Structures are given as structure tokens and as C-alpha cells.
Automatic annotation (TrEMBL):
Source species, domain of life: Eukaryota
GO terms for biological process, alphabetical: cell redox homeostasis
InterPro entries in alphabetical order: Selenoprotein_T
Protein name, UniProt field: Uncharacterized protein
UniProt organism field: Gossypium trilobum
Any single Gene Ontology cellular-component annotation: endoplasmic reticulum membrane
GO molecular function, one term: thioredoxin-disulfide reductase (NADPH) activity
Length: 46
């Protein structure tokens, strides 16, 4: 955090999005599994 402030003078770093809200956190866990599942089904059907 201090490194960012030193490199970019006058910047206000706000960490309001961390930790992410529960729906976004769950979505970030489910989406990759769903994507791999769809790709796996497509590859298996050929």
C-alpha cells in the first residue's frame, strides 16, 4: 500500500471492495467450475 502511494503521489487507495461481497465471492468460485464442465462435456461428446 505504501509502495503504491510512493509511486503514484496524490492517489487515494480505497480497499472498499475487499473482501468481496458473498454473492461475488461465490460466483467467482462457481463460474470456473461451470466453464470446465461445459468444455469437458463438449470434448467428451466429440
Amino acid at each position: 500500500m505504501k509502495m503504491l502511494e510512493a509511486q503514484f503521489l496524490g492517489i487515494d487507495v480505497m480497499l472498499d471492495n475487499y473482501p468481496p461481497p458473498l454473492p461475488k465471492h461465490l460466483l467467482s468460485k462457481v463460474v470456473p467450475v461451470f466453464q470446465f464442465g461445459v468444455i469437458g462435456i463438449m470434448m467428451a461428446s466429440e
